[in-house]
Specification:
Elements lengths: L1 H12 L5 H23 L5 H16 L5 H54 L1 H4 L3 H28 L5 H22 L2 H4 L2
Helix pairs in contact: 2-4, 2-6, 2-7, 3-4, 4-6, 6-7
């Protein structure tokens, strides 16, 4: 009797990898983990151009030429604000998941990417360096939320025998995002 129950339970927990499960895993990881890896590494290569933009816009707007030390501090803030945003996002996950669920949280957090990307993208047009910093903070909040929710969501939708495999998909996408950021940062490839 006990052996029959164990056999029934074993068939219930094993599942197979379907195209839809694989697509959801890759899309959820692509839209979150890869963006995290990309944003983590993307500011390394254009450091001198970011500092030059800050110098140029502060001189234009405030008629003040900042020294190299101030530009380094401003650039350091630009780099580190992403981590502060990530910490903020990770601290919000518990409440968001309770209120919206895992899938709802992922869908709603996607808006943060568009807001942060728009701020950074339009910063040159508006000639405002603080839009870059605000955009990196908001993108960091998205990354903090996503890096916590995506593994929970994938663990929830995956059969038990595939949870380990699907748990690796976000990590692979983080590495892929860092790689893409490094490749696109090569001056031989895209110049400035």
């Amino acid at each position: 009797m006990a052996e029959e129950l164990l056999k029934d339970d074993a068939t219930k927990i094993s599942g197979h990898l379907t195209w839809s499960l694989l697509a959801v895993a890759f899309l959820a990881s692509f839209g979150s983990s890869m963006l995290y890896g990309f944003n983590l590494a993307v500011v390394n290569s254009p450091a001198e151009y970011i500092k030059a933009f800050y110098n140029e816009t502060l001189t234009e707007r405030h008629h003040w030429t900042p020294d190299e030390h101030f530009l380094t501090i401003l650039y350091s803030l630009t780099v580190s604000i992403f981590a502060i945003g990530g910490m903020t996002g990770a601290l919000l996950v518990g409440r968001l998941v309770t209120k919206y669920g895992r899938k709802g949280t992922l869908v709603r957090a996607t808006m943060l990417v568009f807001i942060g990307g728009s701020l950074m993208g339009f910063s040159r047009w508006f000639r405002n360096p603080f839009m870059v910093i605000a955009g990196r903070f908001i993108t960091g909040v998205h990354s903090g939320i996503s890096l916590s929710v995506v593994p929970m969501y994938l663990g929830e939708i995956a059969p038990k025998n595939l949870r380990g495999f699907l748990g690796l998909v976000p990590s692979i996408h983080i590495c892929l995002g860092v790689f893409i950021a490094q490749v696109l940062g090569l001056s031989e490839l895209l110049g400035k």
